[in-house]
Amino acid sequence: MMTNVKLQFHNEVDKAYYKLFYSTDKFIALKGARASGKSMAAAFKVIYDLLRFPYCNWLVIRQFQTTQRNSSYNTIKEVISILGLGQFFKSNVSPLEITFLPTGQKIYFRGMDDPLKLTSIKAEHGFICRTWWEEAYELKSLDAFNTVIESIRGLLPDNGYYQHLLTFNPWSEQHWLKSEFFDDETRRKSVLSFTTTYHNNHHLNQGFIDDMEEMKIRNPNRARVAVYGDWGIAEGLVFDGLFDLEDFEPSEIVGRQIMGLDFGFTHDPTAFVKATVKDNDIYVYGGFYHTGMLNEPMAHKLAQNGAMLGRVYADSAEPRTIAELQTRGLRNVIPVGKGKDSNQQRIEFMKNYRYHIHPSATYLFEEMSTFTYQKDKFGKFLNKPEDGNDHAIQALGYALEPIIFTNKDGSYMNFQQRVQAVKDIGLR
């Protein structure tokens, strides 16, 4: 038998999240800005409901099963540790589950790779009556979501209730999450929906807060989602309809391997991208995306990510950084060519491809979701992208350098040759 446990959440969870613990609405849709603490608050709710309702089992779902262990699974384990309840829980990685030992209740972690498989899961003790859809923005299909929701039914004891919690960053206003759970005219019945920001996470350091404030000025499109938690802008996207998150096995994609590097530091991230080019498809599967990265740790990180196994095309505006990386053994890091309008021409050429972005490279997905064209004073879109929210995009563009703007003899194309190259593929 388990002794009574007094759960102290108030030091860990902001008041904005208290409604998670007393709402009996069928759906709770929580969209939030970056580092708003929403995933941690959701994990606290998972444990709270599990302990409070002996009939309750949780099904934690993400679009890609491979992303569960390093996200929701570890977050829930952290909450168990914070609450001092480790002795009462058993964690298992195959299959990915957490069991509450006194009662046998479980937390199941599954992916939407095959929604029909989710409908066949049966709890060993009690009922699966709660779901947590983490990173719900990644969900591909409303129909698949409904299939799972409709399969979770049946009479619960003690006036029990079913509940489905969705947490996500709202990268586009076109996603069905908006109409299903937030728009007054179309939203479902019995829905609690709300938005939180980094102001609702009191565990952040001042450096991160300063970065968020800086983003409001430097990258307003990205700040719309990442700082304010508002819906991302759907119109004017540079790569509109050309990118998507997909779970694939990189080793199974046969094509040309490319790598690119864009430098940043205080407020701008250093972005390293690895990808495979196969015909008109580009499969982006790895790299990193960090601010405040000095040259020594950058060199180490690059080596860890395979930068010594092929050429890495880097931003030529940082010759000193490139030279220092080369002296640290990364002799394959070489500067890209630059000239009049080369960045804009490179972006235009990149629109000739379709991008398959692995879940390990979500930073590129997030950039493409907020990377728009500039507007003139009349609100008309110009043929020039906004600057500042494109570090992973630039890294990918640099990686494509030998394919798009390099002559057969290895020389960099001049301005007129680059203009003609863009025209030749019908983009201008």
From TrEMBL:
Domain Phage terminase large subunit C-terminal, which positions? 262-401
Name of the molecule in the record:
Phage terminase large subunit
Q: Which Pfam families match?
A: Terminase_3, Terminase_3C
To which species is this protein native? Answer: Convivina praedatoris
**Residue ranges of domain Phage terminase large subunit N-terminal in the record:** 27-229
Give the transmembrane ranges: none
InterPro entries per UniProt? P-loop_NTPase (IPR027417), Phage_terminase_lsu (IPR006437), Terminase_L_C (IPR035413), Terminase_L_N (IPR035412), Viral_DNA_packaging_terminase (IPR052380)
